[in-house]
């Protein structure tokens, strides 16, 4: 494990973004451990406070879910995390402009995957209402709409299917740390 004092990400906020099943939650948890940072998952916070995501979609619709999600992101960013925090976002969180504005200035890591990578991970998935039981067609359609947003918002893009979640987290850390060093050096000059 990298010691918290030894790496320049300490105290920073890192947000993980990407499509359903790209590994935001699993990689985020592992990355927080590597960085010695706190971890939050906005989907988990919403479920804890408001109940299962499919029930929120069914009872109140997607926009109501997006309101809760935008608030969850705002709340986590307003908290004090002296050791830094890794935040797993929901797959559609960056569709909201207010969220894009709030996260700008932080590290936003795009976990890039293809359908073929995530298909085995989505087998039997029942907690993703936007897939409507037609996982491949729905996932591909959402990606066609969202890829340009992900590409625009990302400060770092990482291929997220070349190994286990722990290995992907290691790859993210290995790219984030020099990036932050570079940013810190630029700010000093
Ligand atoms: N690199 C990986 N290799 C293999 N399996 C993985 C990898 N990353 C995540 N998984 C598995 O894929 C599934 C989905 O991962 P995870 O829940 O982390 O994705 P997510 O991006 O948070 O999805 P969602 O948008 O629905 O929140 C989980 O069962 C997880 O264990
Ligand atoms: O991609 C999406 O729009 C979603 C992804 C999940 O993380 C959840 O936030 C929810 O199921 C919606
Ligand atoms: Mg997740």
Automatic annotation (TrEMBL):
Stored SUPFAM superfamilies: P-loop containing nucleoside triphosphate hydrolases
Uppermost EC category: transferase
Any one Pfam family match given in the protein's UniProt record, by short name: SKI
Cofactor(s) the protein needs: Mg(2+)
Catalysed reactions, as listed in the record: shikimate + ATP = 3-phosphoshikimate + ADP + H(+)
InterPro entries: P-loop_NTPase, Shikimate/glucono_kinase, Shikimate_kinase/TSH1, Shikimate_kinase_CS
Bilayer-crossing regions: none
Pathways involved: Metabolic intermediate biosynthesis; chorismate biosynthesis; chorismate from D-erythrose 4-phosphate and phosphoenolpyruvate: step 5/7
E.C. designation(s): 2.7.1.71
Residues that hold ATP according to the record: 21-26, 128
Molecular function per GO: kinase activity
CDD domains in alphabetical order: SK
UniProt key word Kinase: yes
UniProt KW keywords: Amino-acid biosynthesis, Aromatic amino acid biosynthesis, ATP-binding, Cytoplasm, Kinase, Magnesium, Metal-binding, Nucleotide-binding, Transferase
Annotated binding of Mg(2+), by residue: 25
Main location: cytoplasm
Localization per Swiss-Prot or TrEMBL: Cytoplasm
UniProt: substrate binding residues: 43, 66, 91, 146
Record's cofactor remark: Binds 1 Mg(2+) ion per subunit.
Protein family per UniProt: Belongs to the shikimate kinase family.
Subunit text: Monomer.
PANTHER family per UniProt: SHIKIMATE KINASE (PTHR21087), SHIKIMATE KINASE 1, CHLOROPLASTIC (PTHR21087:SF16)
Function: Catalyzes the specific phosphorylation of the 3-hydroxyl group of shikimic acid using ATP as a cosubstrate.
Protein name stated in the entry: Shikimate kinase
Gene: aroK
């Amino acid at each position: 494990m990298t010691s918290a004092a030894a790496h320049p990400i300490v105290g920073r906020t890192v947000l993980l973004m990407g499509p359903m099943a790209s590994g935001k939650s699993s990689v985020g948890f592992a990355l927080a451990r590597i960085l010695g940072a706190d971890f939050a998952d906005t989907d988990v916070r919403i479920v804890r406070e408001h109940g299962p995501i499919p029930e929120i979609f069914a009872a109140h619709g997607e926009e109501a879910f997006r309101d809760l999600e935008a608030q969850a992101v705002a709340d986590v960013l307003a908290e004090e995390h002296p050791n830094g925090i890794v935040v797993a976002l929901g797959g559609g969180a960056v569709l909201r402009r207010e969220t894009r504005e709030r996260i700008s200035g932080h590290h936003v890591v795009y976990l890039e995957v293809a359908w073929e990578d995530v298909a085995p991970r989505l087998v039997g998935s029942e907690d993703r209402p936007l897939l409507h039981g037609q996982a491949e067609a729905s996932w591909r359609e959402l990606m066609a709409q969202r890829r340009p947003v992900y590409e625009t918002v990302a400060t770092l893009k990482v291929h997220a299917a070349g190994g286990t979640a722990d290995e992907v987290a290691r790859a993210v850390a290995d790219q984030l740390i020099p990036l932050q060093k570079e940013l810190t050096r630029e700010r000093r000059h």
